[in-house]
Design the sequence.
């Protein structure tokens, strides 16, 4: 993938941060074969340029006893002030894990965390009661699998690994309020020092470290570096595939195709109007069209139809029950 201003040394630095967002700069320096000072200089430069937007961690909310629902809203009768108020509501809402503005069939995509369908329905009713006059239509899905892949363009030789999952049928991991506070703080800033975390939570740094490592081993916490893909000259599209049949072998082949495609960022499986979503970072509308044409040709026996959304901007990304 075209990484423009990125040099080979940069790609090695980013590869290590992608795998472990808390990795010490000294370890990156050893792996990249450069000085620690050089690593710090380059990483600070990425942040200043707005290429790295956030060092965070994502939580597998299903392991915390939550389900993930995706709400898709088409707006009507709005103006700039009304849209700002609607967006502000979702940004401040602690049940909202993800929020994006898009162009296409829908205007807003909202990821909602809830313990069960009843809690989600209560939240949905609250949204409709509050903003119903501005909602032309909405649809929702239940997310049953949302793997987090390593970024493929950091090295063409690397096959993407699945770092973890945001949702799915996973056993609940026993946690307490302290664990949830650690998850919340690392979701906001994954590179916070143990001393900083200790001070904010009010427990010894050794205890923070032990609990944090335990959550990472259990894959409750997943390393995530949020990037500004537009700086790479890429455009983000969400493609929703409506399947006409579901043979397990072909379904797995479709998901595998997405996982190993260099321009596919995410592959999400859901229950709802459509069954599979690909988040595709394309170089242009024409490039996106070529990718979709290839997918439809290879999987014409199971794909009935598809919809495309252009993601204008991501307004919130925080998979943590305590925000």
Sequence:
């Amino acid at each position: 993938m075209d990484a423009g201003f990125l040099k080979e040394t940069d790609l090695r630095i980013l590869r290590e941060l992608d795998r472990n967002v808390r990795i010490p700069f000294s370890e990156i320096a050893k792996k990249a074969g450069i000085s620690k000072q050089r690593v710090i200089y380059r990483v600070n430069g990425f942040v200043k340029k707005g290429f790295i937007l956030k060092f965070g961690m994502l939580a597998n909310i299903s392991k915390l006893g939550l389900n993930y629902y995706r709400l898709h809203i088409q707006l009507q009768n709005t103006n700039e002030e009304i849209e700002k108020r609607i967006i502000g509501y979702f940004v401040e809402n602690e049940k909202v894990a993800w929020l994006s503005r898009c162009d296409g069939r829908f205007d807003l995509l909202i990821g909602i965390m809830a313990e069960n369908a009843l809690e989600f329905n209560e939240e949905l009713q609250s949204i409709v009661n509050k903003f119903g006059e501005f909602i032309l239509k909405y649809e929702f899905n239940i997310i049953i699998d949302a793997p987090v892949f390593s970024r493929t363009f950091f090295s063409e030789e690397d096959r993407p690994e699945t770092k973890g999952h945001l949702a799915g049928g996973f056993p609940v991991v026993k946690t307490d309020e302290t664990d949830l506070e650690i998850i919340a703080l690392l979701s906001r800033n994954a590179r916070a020092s143990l001393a900083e975390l200790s001070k904010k939570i009010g427990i010894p740094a050794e205890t923070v470290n032990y609990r944090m490592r335990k959550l990472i081993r259990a894959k409750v916490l997943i390393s995530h570096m949020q990037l500004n893909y537009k700086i790479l000259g890429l455009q983000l599209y969400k493609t929703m595939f409506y399947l006409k049949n579901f043979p397990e072998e072909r379904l797995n082949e479709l998901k595998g195709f997405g996982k190993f495609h260099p321009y596919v960022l995410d592959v999400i499986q859901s229950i709802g109007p459509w069954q599979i979503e690909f988040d595709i970072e394309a170089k242009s509308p024409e490039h996106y069209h070529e990718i979709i044409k290839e997918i439809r040709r290879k999987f014409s026996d199971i794909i009935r139809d598809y919809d495309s959304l252009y993601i204008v901007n991501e307004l919130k990304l925080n998979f943590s029950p305590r925000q």
Observations:
- DSSP finds ten helices and eleven strands in the chain.
